[in-house]
Amino acid sequence: VAFAGLFYLAMIIFGYAIANSVVEEKQSRIAEILLTAVPSRQLLLGKILGNTVLAMGQMVLIVGVALAGLSFSPWKEYLSLVTAPALWFLVYFVVGFMALACLWAAAGALAGRVEDVSSTSMPLLMVVMAVYFYGLLSSGSSQVIASYIPVASAIAMPTRLVSGSAAWWEPIASILVSLIFSALTIWVGERIYRRAILQTGGRMGVKAAWRNTDVVR
Question: N or C end of the chain, less CB within 10 A?
């Protein structure tokens, strides 16, 4: 439950921060100035990496304080049980966050103004919530499947590691699946971002952005 709560909150807080920063740059025409000097891929990568570092730093701080607090509590004998899953959670968090961060940036690029972000990001938010609850509430064979589904695996696999039901190779295989998924979402998000960032005149649909010609480098 703790892993799931941390993952969900970070995705929502930093996800909306990324989307809002993108649409603010677009609405104020700052993006047009930036893109004359910096390629869109580099601008997007810098935004994602910066927010990933901030989110990861927050997660490391929270998990580190929690483990330190546990070592001074009456339940300190459980420290060795949760340390390895906590470290795996941080690895999954980085992979999952980078996969979704690019999609949050695309949601911001589709919006014409800050007020539109809630509607352009709603499909992504619904998917994140569905996967979140699936990873949190799954059990048995359903949990095994969830531990290989990107994003849900960030919740399900550490849970299985705590319970001892996962073999040593399973988290490695799950991470590889998540990395492949991340590469795909980064490509999709970057394409939408590149083709929608300079479009003005209101919200832009995903299909329209996907079919649009490149307007920036």
Answer: N
